[in-house]
Amino acid sequence: MNHLQIDNLTVVYGAVRAIAGISIHVRQGETVALIGPNGAGKTSLLFTVAGVVAPRSGTIKVNDRDLAGMSAEARVANGISVVPENREVFTKLNVHENLLVGASLRKDRAAIQADTDRMYTLFPRLAERRQHMAGFLSGGEQQMLAIARALMAHPKLLMLDEPSLGLAPVVTDKVYEAIGELKKGGTSILLVEQNSERAFAVSDRAYLMQAGRLVAEGAPAQLAQDGIVEQTLFGRAAARIVGTPNNIQVTP
Amino acid sequence: MNALQMLIDAASVGGLYALTALGLGLIFGVIGLVNFAYGEYIMVGAYVLLLTAGVHWPFAILAVLIFVILFALASDWLVFRQVRRAQPETLMIVSFGLSFMIQHLYVVLFGSLTRTVNFLPEINRSIEIGGLRVAGVSILQIAATIILTTALALVINYTKIGYQMRAVSENPRMARLVGVNSNRIVAAAFAISAVLAVTVTVLFVAQTGSMTPFFGVSLTMIGFVATVIGGLGSLPGCALGGFLVGALTTLLQMMLPSHLQPFREAFVFAAVIIVLLVRPQGLIAVRSAWERV
Hints:
The complex is a heterodimer.
Chain A: E1 4-13, E2 16-26, E3 31-35, H1 42-50, E4 57-62, E5 65-66, H2 72-77, E6 80-83, H3 95-102, H4 109-122, H5 124-128, H6 139-151, E7 157-161, H7 169-184, E8 188-193, H8 196-202, E9 205-210, E10 213-218, H9 220-226, H10 228-234, H11 236-242
Parallel strand pairs in A: 3-8, 3-9, 6-7, 7-8
Antiparallel strand pairs in A: 1-2, 1-4, 4-5, 9-10
Helix pairs in contact in A: 3-6, 10-11
Chain B: H1 3-31, H2 38-51, H3 57-78, H4 88-110, E1 115-116, E2 126-129, E3 132-135, H5 136-158, H6 160-170, H7 172-177, H8 182-208, E4 210-211, H9 215-230, H10 235-255, H11 264-278
Antiparallel strand pairs in B: 1-4, 2-3
């Protein structure tokens, strides 16, 4: 039984087809990368799984349970969390309140307290800033807060949308370190990225997406060697210029 | 009548308007709805007081409280929730429609005549404090304003429902994505605004003893103007705006020469226009954090 099983999913906005009949899956504890250029439909896919975008057709199952008609809140309660592109932290709430909002579905005060402490250990930078309004944090701090906020709900399946977007390399290291920790802890991860090199380094499998369709699927090492990643991201002509770096390190 | 006595009267009316403005401002803050049907919560509450005239007053107030809260929740559930993601102007028109519909339903059921009720005549008696003769209802109005404003500020800033409300207010989609039950949070905001409306109803009816199907609208209009000059979306701004408009109205009532008194509102709204010309964002602009990427 796959943790996440998406079959033949189609999402349409007005006259635009964002996703055209995609089928992907994530196994228990697996980290799967979803790579593609802007407009490929990656974000739409995450939001459809999260329950804030309604699909035109197709099924989404989590642990064999069909999510059709389930509210976004109920999906969080069922262990599905998303860290959106651009973080979307609550800028007018302080860091600590952002974490507490992430625990909205939980009642046990002591456990919530223990979890906020755990987040502050995982991201010491947030501990220093706990009373600051989230809108005043740097991009990297906001990214850490967005991840920590999602973790407060105890997700079993975490979806991250371009966690490295707009971050300095050092900060991206920090974020990917945290993703590595989660992976070790057994969380299933669906990782949307344009930064394929980063994503491949932590992923067990990868899908390439373009214009709402899948163009390739496989082990990151295989995809990286084929040069198909560059073709998908930059187009056939540009791929030759960008070249294929064959020095990508892949975790077994 | 000396200056201090005038100030107390001004503060009591200002308090009533501040509570009205807070009820409007809270709903606007959470879902971006300028709820003109808010006046109908006040009006409906007054008629419940009329119907429960013979009942011992705490029970009458309890009846109003329960009825108006249910009424506000029903208006959200049956009407506003159906258009939750509509544009703010659509929401406002919907609330206008609901407001007119309720008023005219009342006219059909009870007629449009002014009704009078002798509710809690005791609190209209004057009491003497240090040589000042003050109406008991004025003291109650000031006390209710202070208590409810403080309580609301504490709830918004320090409770779970408070930070969830702020989260829904800033980014409703993200709030749902982290598991906030936004329908329940919005319902809570409607319930709190209903409590404010009931307070206004009880104090207003106790003071004037009369009601028409249309008196809620005029209060809401003033409340709305107050929220705009205070800074739409800022609760301290709403309270301040309501307070200033109420106080100004009362002071003009007392200080204008008698032949100008019928035009009191013209002076109030001239002042409002001047405030908005000088500070179009309202007296207290909504504090927004810097966006850093």
